[in-house]
Write a structure and sequence with these properties.
- The complex is a heterodimer of chains A (about 525) and B (about 325).
- Chain A is an alpha+beta fold.
- Chain A has 2 domains: about 250 residues, D-Maltodextrin-Binding Protein, domain 2, CATH 3.40.190; about 220 residues, Dipeptide-binding Protein, Domain 3 (Dipeptide-binding Protein, domain 3, Roll).
- Chain A is globular and about 70 Å long.
- Chain A is built from 16 helices and 23 strands.
- In chain A, about 30% of the residues lie in helices and about 20% in strands.
- In chain A, the strands form 6 sheets. Chain A has a 7-stranded mixed sheet.
- Chain B has about 325 residues and is mainly alpha-helical.
- Chain B has 2 domains: about 55 residues, no CATH class; about 220 residues, Orthogonal Bundle (MetI-like fold), CATH 1.10.3720.
- Chain B is globular, with a radius of gyration of 24 Å.
- Chain B starts with a helix and ends in a 6-residue tail after the last helix.
- Classes of the chains: A alpha+beta (about 525), B mainly alpha (about 325).
- Chains A and B meet through helix 1, helix 7 and helix 14 of A and helix 2, helix 3, helix 5, helix 7 and helix 8 of B.
């Protein structure tokens, strides 16, 4: 038998091959020096942030577009593209002046001729936009930098709406793009934000690429929430698609990527244990779990039965089962989010405490006839999977009959818009989660819309809630808004449209050489610096 | 031979038509609404309905089917609901990673498995044989994703020899391309090494007891020549069949491997399209895979004539 010997030539050849491979690694590392490699929560497939409310598209919007106003870290609305604005004494005329130096990515100037159709297109799609545009009598460009909005009657929502932080965000687009039919997707992706979308390099399922826009003029204030100076400190941002969470974590540990937007909670201990990785809660307002009732069919077409569920639930059980670590959740009875200006516990004091005796009493008073609750159980999204089993258990302990039906999330999404009876493919209740920034007041939070057929799936019909929402839209001061928000919450506690099941947080993870990540309701990549090593 | 090939190709038409009908109907029966997915979580019922209408999903199913069939016959695979790209464009973008992974996997599997199988047969009953067969059992039993995670942990996370995930295109250089595929190809090849090694061993064992092998040895041929020239060539037909089946089975294997290693190939496209209910993409991919499957079977049948001159069509 011949033994295998390593000749000098084979060693040299092997070393050359190894150095060739190593050389390529070195080259790619060099190229990656000022490139931020990020794994987002989802793949970017659609690129029109007005046409869809998907969060990944909203995040894309923040990369390439700018907004007239923006929410700062304290929750106050600050001018962003707007330099200054005035409001007339009768609060009916708003005059806005754009700041100097705003440029589109094709190096043409941003003018008020671009702004007005952008607001119109957003207002045609976004529910808060629709409400606010209902107050608008006219929008006129006075000159390339000044425009005026005249209202039919005063509203305290106009500036907040123009700085709305989450889907749909009123991004400003070039006139020719903004004039696209709101029901048709845009096909040109020119913005005026700090990064330029590299359409040629965009491969859905693989990556989306953004490069620094040299012509962007940031505000002089430091970055604060979504407001302040949006200074792009890296030349290039790549959103890499890594569908498998474990693999995303492995890639971060190995230094192949720099940031994971939201690693799953069960993998956080693995990341915490590595000295080269830091966790950062970029969204301090977090998210809120919610159970939505179908108001059109039994048993939840009866307000007392819905209230029985409100008494049967407690938030801790849901949060423990899904998030686990108390560091990343908060029991919070405020429907408009703990830590927000409209935080209130009104009407909820004795609810959400798993008072089964009270729940049973309400079921008896309501004449509950043991109609099964068809509960939709999403099985493929980790942050939602354990919600339905907890709901089932608590409802059953209160005396409900529950038929929990398991399916993937996309089937839940399709099924929840069906209005058929539960026996014919309909549903009684489903569980989901909201980004807190989407539910900061009763007008913007979709589940408070109680206009029956025009409301979101679940279709609650309560003229009293609708009257309160209309009053909220007209409220001029924060004190007035707070008073109405309390009234809305009290009313919902009596006649629940949905049940809020606690706040939770999903920290991002980054290599330790990354700094400057700004806390915002949506992940943004300006202000982030990438140092050497790690 | 030519008439045989033409007949076989003609036979693919009813197969593909049946697949087309089945796929179309199954997708329409599957719960899930692409319009609701596209519209996003905060969309109103009206917005979802608008999108359904735009996508043509409000038309009767039969009408949708014939529109799609007509497009397919004109060579138009349709447009993705999500990507605003034609399905053909999407498949073209994704074919390189999948083809690269598949070819490397099969090459790796054949290079490793056939010598292992031959050696196991030659040393039947010894520890070498038991080792190869033991590996074969493990290769069959361990799921692809477990092998994948183990290899990643050892060779990427701990040793840093290969990337954890991702794919480098050939245009970026052969070195990075090969490096990005080593772990995925090894992961995927494990089951094929097991399959082909086992089949090679059985096949070679049968041949080794034939008279012509004894004759070859009597003529003074070396054992290597006896094994690889005389025995292996005559044992090749079942081995080629298994390799052919393996190539066809790869279609399923790449789905898992591409997901684990974040390779933007056809497997990942299939998974993404199924999760998003992107009907045109799913329909086109399954139809294409069916065609490839039929084609591979034909090629395997034709290859028999090379290894066994007695076979004629």
């Amino acid at each position: 038998m011949k033994s295998v010997k390593l000749s000098r030539r084979s060693v040299v050849a092997g070393a050359a091959a190894a150095s060739a491979l190593a050389g390529t690694t070195g080259a790619s590392a060099q190229g990656a020096a000022n490139t931020l490699r990020v794994v987002m929560h989802s793949d970017l497939r659609i690129v029109d942030p007005i046409w869809t409310t998907a969060y990944i598209v909203r995040n894309h919007g923040y990369m390439i577009y700018d907004t007239l106003f923006a929410l700062d870290s304290k929750g106050d609305v600050q001018p962003q593209m707007v330099d200054k604005f005035t409001v007339s004494d009768d609060k009916l005329t708003y005059s806005f002046t754009l700041r100097d130096g705003l440029m589109w990515h094709d190096n043409t100037p941003v003018t008020t001729a671009d702004v007005i159709p952008s607001i119109r297109r957003w207002g045609a799609r976004d529910p808060l936009g629709q409400t606010v545009l209902g107050f608008v009598a006219s929008m006129d460009a006075k000159d390339p930098k000044t425009f005026e909005i005249k209202l039919k009657e005063p509203t305290g929502l106009l500036i907040f709406a123009l700085g709305k932080p989450s889907s749909n965000v009123p991004f400003i687009m070039p006139k020719r793009v903004a004039e696209t039919d709101p029901n048709t997707q845009i096909s040109e992706f020119v913005g005026s934000g700090p990064f330029v979308f590299q359409r040629d390099e965009w491969r859905p399922g693989d990556k989306a690429v953004y490069t620094k826009f040299a012509g962007y003029k940031p505000r002089s204030e430091p970055a604060s929430g979504l407001a302040g100076g949006k200074v792009a400190k890296v030349d290039r941002v790549e959103w890499r698609v890594v569908a498998d969470q474990q693999q995303a974590v492995n890639a971060l540990l190995a230094g192949e990527i720099d940031i994971i937007e939201s690693p799953s909670h069960d993998l956080l201990p693995l990341l915490k244990a590595d000295n080269n990785i830091k966790l950062f809660n970029w969204n301090p307002l977090g998210n809120q779990y919610t159970m939505r009732f179908n108001h059109t069919t039994a048993p939840f077409n009866n307000p007392k039965i819905r209230q029985a569920a409100l008494y049967a639930f407690n938030q801790e059980d849901f949060l423990k089962a899904t998030i686990g670590d108390p560091e990343y959740y908060k029991v919070c009875k405020a429907m408009f989010v703990c830590g927000s200006p409209l935080e209130t516990m009104a009407g909820m004091e004795d609810k959400l405490e798993s008072n089964f005796a009270k729940a049973r009493q309400l079921l008896q008073e309501a004449g509950y006839n043991r109609e099964p609750v068809v509960l939709l159980h999403s099985t493929d999204l980790q942050v939602l999977t354990n919600l339905a089993p907890v709901a089932k258990s608590l409802l059953e302990r209160a005396g409900f009959v529950v038929d929990m039906q398991s399916m993937d999330w996309q089937t839940v999404v399709a099924r929840r818009v069906k209005r058929d009876p539960p026996t014919q493919g309909g549903w009684s209740a489903m569980l989901t989660s909201w980004v807190s920034a989407d539910i900061l007041n009763p007008v913007m939070a979709g589940f408070f819309n109680a206009s029956g057929d025009k409301a979101a799936f679940g279709w609650p019909n309560d003229p009293e809630i609708e009257a309160l929402r209309a009053r909220f839209a007209r409220a001029g001061t924060l004190a007035e808004q707070k008073q109405i928000a309390e009234a809305v919450q009290r009313r919902v506690a009596e006649n629940p449209t949905h049940i809020h099941l606690g706040q939770w947080y999903s920290p991002g993870a980054h290599r330790s050489n990354i700094s400057g990540w700004v806390a915002t309701p949506a992940p943004v990549f300006w202000n982030i610096e990438k140092g050497r090593g790690a | 031979m030519l008439s045989y090939i033409l007949r076989r190709l003609a036979a693919t038409v009813p197969v593909l038509f049946t697949v087309a009908v089945m796929v179309f109907l199954m997708l329409r029966l599957t719960p899930g609404d692409p319009a609701a997915i596209i519209a996003g979580d905060n969309a109103t019922s009206q917005q979802i309905l608008d999108i359904r209408t735009k996508l043509g999903l409000e038309q009767p199913v039969l009408q949708q089917f014939f529109i799609w069939l007509g497009s397919i016959l004109r060579g138009d695979l349709g447009e993705s609901f999500f990507f605003r790209k034609t399905v053909w464009e999407l498949i073209s973008e994704r074919i390189e990673p999948t083809l690269s992974l598949a070819v490397l996997t099969i090459v790796l599997a054949v290079i490793i498995a056939i010598p292992l199988g031959v050696v196991a047969a030659y040393r039947q009953g010894t520890w070498v044989d038991r080792l190869v067969m033991g590996f074969s059992v493990i290769g069959f039993s361990v799921p692809v994703f477990v092998v994948g995670y183990l290899l990643v942990y050892i060779f990427a996370v701990k040793l840093g020899w290969f990337p954890v995930q991702g794919y480098q295109r050939i245009s970026g250089g052969l070195g990075p391309w090969f490096r990005s595929l080593v772990l995925p190809a090894f992961t995927l090849s494990v089951i094929y090494v097991a399959l082909i090694a086992r089949m090679t061993r059985t096949s070679v064992l049968e041949v080794l007891s034939e008279d012509y092998i004894r004759t070859a040895r009597a003529k003074g041929q070396t054992e290597v020549k006896v094994l690889f020239q005389h025995a292996l060539k005559n044992a090749a037909v079942p081995i080629v069949t298994v390799v052919g089946i393996g190539i066809a089975l790869l279609i399923g294997g790449v789905v898992v491997t591409e997901s684990v290693y974040s390779i933007p190939g056809l497997g990942r496209l299939t998974v993404d399209a199924v999760l998003a209910r992107d009907f045109p993409v799913i329909q086109a991919i399954i139809l294409s895979f069916s065609f490839v499957y039929v084609l591979i079977n034909l090629l395997v049948d034709l290859s028999y004539t090379i290894f066994d001159p007695r076979i004629r069509y």
